[in-house]
Amino acid sequence: MLLAREPGPAVALNGRGTAFGFVVPFGDGYWRVGGWDRAHGEVPDTAPVGLEELRQITERVFGSDFGMHDARWMSRFHSDERQVPRYRVGRVLLAGDAAHTHSPAGGQGMNTGLQDAANLGWKLASVVNGQAPEDLLDSYHAERHPVGRAVLRSSGALLRLAMAHNPPQRGLRALLTAAVGHVPPVARGAIGRITGIGYAYKAPRGAHPLTGRRVPDVRLEEGRVRGAARGPVRADHPAGHKGGHDERFAVAHWASGRRTALLVRPDGYAAWASETAGAGSAAEAAARIATGGTPAAS
User: Fold this and answer.
1) How far apart (Å, rounded) are the C-alpha atoms in residues 201 and 212?
2) Distances from the Cα of 1 to the Cα of 25, 65, 67, 223, angstroms
3) May I ask the CATH architecture of the domain 82-195?
């Protein structure tokens, strides 16, 4: 959809009365515009949709239709909230929309699906290449199913807050909006949830606080974390062992004076971390990860 008057550089999301609407930039001059007015009741997905219907909803929600014109594509859809009970059943593994479907509020679906694939991809490759037993694939469900459940809840909560029609709900919406805009920790948490990179995987009791968390793409002497993580990578301090690689993991070194030793999985998450352990401990942790086990606490 082209707009004669843009609502702003970011997502516009609002609810008013029985109507709800959102306007999202595609980045190429076009905008995704959607909305619903529950006063009109449920309409079949096959029913034709016209620009005038969307214009009326947008005007009611935002007080303007932003001069919308020249829609590239229009359709109806239903916002279901569903999740399969298991992401793996034998040789069948589900990811993305096949595993979870939910409201588009927050735009979390694509990020969640991509990260499902990133989590599953390296594990599937390890099993297929004979580097790990089939049991490793069970950790895909264990790690990603809770994330999918959280996304269903947060996207549904965003939609219900946007559709709030009584004073207490609208007050809560205003409070949360103000907190996201003005309280940095709340803003960081919201961004982490929406992008999907703020979720952490469960770590064993007593593990280093970084275990199970996504490792930022920081600089290494050998490049950057993302470029190095084609397989397990042990990131160590500059004074540590130089060069070479273990058969289970490559060795890299922080470009800074950081002392923490990390074992970074191919999907960018820390599988093990220690402030004191040496290469032998990292090798043992890598072996346990490759066989589907959980690294011992360090």
Assistant:
1) 5
2) 10, 11, 10, 41
3) 3-Layer(bba) Sandwich (3.50)
Sketch the domain layout of the chain as residue ranges.
Answer: 1-78, 82-195, 219-290
Residue 54 tokens, joined: 């969307």
CA distances from 13 to 107, 158, 181 (A): 11, 10, 14
Q: The pTM is what?
A: 0.73
pLDDT in tens, 76-114: 877 778 999 999 999 999 999 999 988 776 678 888 999
* Residue 294: burial class (beta carbons within 10 Å; 0-12, 13-18, 19+): middle
Residue among 140, 147, 163 at smallest CA distance from 83: 147
The predicted-structure confidence for 155-171, as pLDDT tens digits, reads as follows 877 777 766 667 777 77
- In angstroms, the CA 41 to CA 221 distance is 60
Bridge-based pairing state of the strands 100-101 and 219-220: unpaired
